[in-house]
Amino acid sequence: MLKTILTTTFAALAVGTASAQVSNMPPHVQARLAEVGPVWGKDILGNLARTLEVYAPILRDAPKAGIRVSRDLAYGPDARHEADMYQPEGKTGVPVAVFIHGGAYVRGERDISPEVYGNVATYFARQGMLGVNATYRLAPATQWPGAAEDVGALVRWLRANAARFGGDPNRIFLIGHSAGATHVATYAYLKSLQPAEGTGIAGMVLMSGRYHFDPNPNDPNLKNFQAYFGTDAAQYPARSPVNHVKAAAAIPTFLVISEYDNPDLDTQGALLLAALCERDRACPRFTRMERHNHLSMVFQFNTADDALGREIMEFMRRGR
To answer: Residues with Cβ < 8 Å from 123, sequence gap 6 or more?
Structure first.
């Protein structure tokens, strides 16, 4: 049944509304993405650097006025339990957009450059929301489900403190990318990681995460995956978020993948889409970002290439 739904829903929905957004960028950006895209998975870190290089000057010159940034706020006891708050000046009671970065489970920072990933929180603050950019514990020092527990700790902290920065604690939206999407989904679907009152979030945007743990031996991130999830494959089904969807509370969800994604992450998004379609007898919002790669899908926030940002804002307003 799952495979049948996967085939039909993915084929029908893979034409997401963000398909034309790259055309809003300068020709040299389009050319770089076209050059890197087809070979993205052959040199992920090298192509990351090439993609960041072309976006850096655009993000440096992007609008940032009217935003107050409070940095290095502790939401827990660990050194990596920190968040930066991007607050639109003069606004109160606004939705909270929380970005959870990726990094193959073993790396990642709130800021991998002077502009990224602050560009994500900046974009949502410019739209009148409280933007949040947070870090969490990494493998191998912390293994499953430590990072997902950190997501829960961050949500609890925001529910208690977001109002101090103008945010509405009842409208917290999590935006997870790559490993960050895995951690958000793990927290959202595994009831054992949630407080008795539930997740405390109003919705989530899951961007190119891994949700079904059946790693390919040729996966370039296999060792990083094992550093967090362990090497005992018998544990993987119970730790796979997709296997907990049926028993989980229904949370508004927006799934996003890129055309040139890390190996298998596009199909991972399709698998979660199928599981949600089957559970709810209706499919959640889904977009494939054509001509984008695994990192440009995040670097494009706060640029003219803003179709995805506008769609996320609509998702938050409608709740679907």
So the answer is: 131, 301, 302, 306, 309
Report the alpha-carbon distance of residue 198 to residue 205 in Å, rounded.
Answer: 18
Instruction: Tell me, yes or no, if the pTM score tops 0.85.
Output: yes
- How far apart CA 66 and CA 126 sit, in angstroms, is 8
Classify residue 309 by its DSSP letter. H
Q: In which band, very low, low, confident or very high, does the pLDDT at 13 lie, cut at 50, 70 and 90?
A: very low
The answer to whether 259 and 231 have CB atoms below 8 angstroms apart is no
Number of other CB atoms surrounding residue 251 within 10 Å: 18
Cα 113–117–120 angle (5° rounding)?
145
What is the rounded average pLDDT of the residues 256-270? 95
Q: How far is C-alpha 141 from the chain's CA centre? A: 22
E-strand ranges in 188-236 read: 203-207
Distance separating alpha carbons of residues 260 and 291, to the nearest angstrom? 7
Residue 299 to residue 56: CA distance in whole angstroms: 9
Residue 72's pLDDT band (cuts 50, 70, 90): very high
Q: Whole-number mean pLDDT of the chain? A: 93
Judged against a pLDDT cut of 70, whether residue 20 lies above it is answered with no
Query: 2-13 vs 265-280: helix axis angle to the nearest 10?
Result: 110
